[in-house]
Design brief:
- The structure is a homodimer.
- By secondary structure, chain A is of the alpha+beta class.
- Chain A has a single domain (2-134), classed as Gcn5-related N-acetyltransferase (GNAT) (Aminopeptidase).
- Helices cover 33% and strands 29% of the residues of chain A.
- Chain A has helices at residues 16-29, 37-49, 97-111, 126-134, and strands spanning 2-3, 6-10, 54-58, 64-72, 79-88, 116-122, 149-155.
- Chain A has a six-stranded mixed sheet, sandwiched between helices.
- In chain A, a hairpin with a 5-residue loop joins strand 3 and strand 4.
- In chain A, helix 1 (16-29) packs across helix 2 (37-49).
- Chain A is globular, with a radius of gyration of 16 Å.
- At the A-B interface, helix 2, strand 4, strand 5, helix 3 and strand 6 of A face helix 2, strand 4, strand 5, helix 3 and strand 6 of B.
Chain lengths: 156, 156
């Protein structure tokens, strides 16, 4: 899959440094606390090697990524898919990279026989929301007039 | 831990039938599609035995459950914890069972060295929201005035 002739490809453990740098940039841009790049790289290497995370990257050197988790579903034989992170470096936004990464993510989920794909975001992130909704993703229970679905978290 | 002298206990693979019945009741109550109880029981047995899911139950026979997932975190050495299902049978609501199950869930997460605990819900489920907020769970990014955090899903 390409956008502006830029390929989306699956990451391997050798990409851990690129992934760590992008995740660090992401956290820094949004003023979130972040581990150092070296610590993130070591953890990403371990999680990639163990197939705990699946990462798609765009660009060489990479300027965007999608980070996915698969977990065995309660409701069907395939896994549920969670899009945990989706990031495109600020200078490369608006060129379809996010769309290409999301499309490749859903394709990867389907290829793994997943029937359920989900993500969380913030209501202020209108670009992400527009992208998700353009793929038919829904934020309401039981139809377009249903209640909003909300995400709650606790640091413990 | 007890509420009205009713104990919360961890489920083992032999509890798969109880879990399947409660999940089936949950789906039926909320008019969600649901696999048959036998199919759910077989899948729950497999996922419990593989430590893919962790379930806490209340009552004998059980009338409520919390179903958790642990996944290795990107951000810290312990796992992130996701509360995937929290259910109390209608006839037993209002007696503190949900609170006891959530409290035991957070304790189990802490015992596993988790630093992050999350759940999704619908804005219409005011009982769940009140419970989550009473434990300090937050639905807003970067402080109490921040944007709502939303959950999007896609059946693929």
């Amino acid at each position: 899959m390409t956008t502006e002739s830029v390929t989306v490809r699956p990451a391997g453990p050798d990409d851990a440094g690129h992934i760590a740098r992008l995740l660090h940039d992401f956290n820094t841009e949004y003023s979130e606390p972040t581990p150092p790049v070296d610590e993130l790289a070591a953890r990403c290497h371990e999680l990639l090697a163990a197939n705990e995370i699946h990462v798609l990257m765009i660009g060489e050197p990479p300027f965007g990524l999608a980070l996915l988790r698969f977990r065995p579903s309660l409701w069907s034989n395939g896994p549920d898919t969670h899009l945990e992170e989706l990031y495109v470096a600020p200078a490369r936004r608006g060129g379809g990279a996010g769309r290409a990464l999301l499309e490749a993510s859903i394709e990867l989920a389907r290829a793994n026989r997943s029937e359920h794909f989900d993500v969380t975001t913030a209501e202020a992130d209108t670009a992400a929301i527009g992208l998700y909704e353009s793929f038919g993703m829904v934020n309401r229970e039981r139809g377009p007039e249903g209640p909003l679905m909300l995400y709650y978290e606790l640091e413990i």
